[in-house]
């Protein structure tokens, strides 16, 4: 396995006197011996490598343009109203809300990394007891809608919630109020860390154990080996997941509104729903897009474009399980604590309300069509999103440069725009240019692809970076056509990332609400919309049972993904 780190054009060539040689001399001596030498060659900088084929550039560019449709809609809406937009943006209150939004984004993202990386390593690489159980349980919080999760936490741990009632005999009359920053921080962290967990776990499944074993044989401890050998190889997966968490938190409205923490999306929704000023709302959404582009720019700086692929003879093989020893029980306690807060508390409240709601009527007759609709549209969204992500991931992994970087950043814009803006943009273009597709499942799936493309692109690109390009080159020299190389060589090797991406798209589509409410055909009900309707009508028992069914469907999909990835092997 080699780690290649491309340098800028002004950097001296590898092995030449100067800065490059001096940097090599400063590297720890043990590192140069790992696996026969851990090579850090300089890869061509942007614009110096081979040109990407048109058959790859064209579909990737079309995907990038499609992702910018919501931005085009915002520019159309704000045309001729820049004076009102500027007046709104210059208000001190607007920038105070923006500061609170960015603070929440930073806190949730950092904590998500702290939770997800050790969880992924414990499940994928150790002899953790009940490893297969924790592999499913730690991902399931992703299936709980944020607006449902925030409501459940207010009901469970609010000042006079269920927990306070249980503690009342002990003299506890009131619990701390969850509303505000700390409540939003807690809820958003618990329900978004799986965005980081899944790509990191997929990346761990593809790491070459030879580097780790060689480091250990040279006297390095487990912790030092993890820091110097394993963690650097996980950077693309960590950053791709962190990018999703940051963008998701930036665009979230339901949870922060329930917990009364004013973020930037709050100001946008006020303009849409109260002031009825779509031009001003469009201007605020453009600022939200600019903030998203800033996050993507920071991600590009931190990523450093590392390459990970096997460069030594041998066959990739599963790594040996790391014995936890005396750390087994602290590891179990850590997994149990995260699962209890992220899944146990919401499920306990749901079961409580479900028991109270079983006698409310024959509402379960409506669950069959809603469940089938949810599964069908989520499967379509997963297939369509992965298909759209393939050319973008291939272009970015094999032909880094200005064009691939631009398309990659455009692919993440839709994830940072609130769902109502995406839905209105699809309605706008659907009525004017796509009349036959308006109010059809096809337009709904297209909206899902625009919003959830990053959830498939991140893990897929991280897996693609771990595939040795020499394998593809050898296949081409043997007379294989590009599509044959893709189907017979590349796709089997990137399967962990492909399945992780498809699984995440399936999960987040199951719980998607704003797009489904606005764009779904008449009479097309899903589990998410059915839950929302029950909550708005104060039928909490019905909503609880439907939410439990939503979690069960997600659990089944996660189990299938893990089985295909080989995570169920002992």
Automatic annotation (TrEMBL):
The keyword Transport applies. It is a multi-pass membrane protein. The keyword Glycoprotein does not apply. Residues 1-21 are annotated as: Disordered. Signal peptide: none annotated. InterPro entries: MetI-like (IPR000515), MetI-like_sf (IPR035906). Belongs to the binding-protein-dependent transport system permease family. GO terms for cellular component: plasma membrane. PROSITE patterns: ABC_TM1. It is found in: Cell inner membrane; Cell membrane. Keywords: Cell inner membrane, Cell membrane, Membrane, Transmembrane, Transmembrane helix, Transport. It comes from Thermaerobacter marianensis (strain ATCC 700841 / DSM 12885 / JCM 10246 / 7p75a). It holds the Pfam family BPD_transp_1. This is Binding-protein-dependent transport systems inner membrane component. Its main location: membrane. Residues 98-297, 371-561 form the ABC transmembrane type-1 domain.
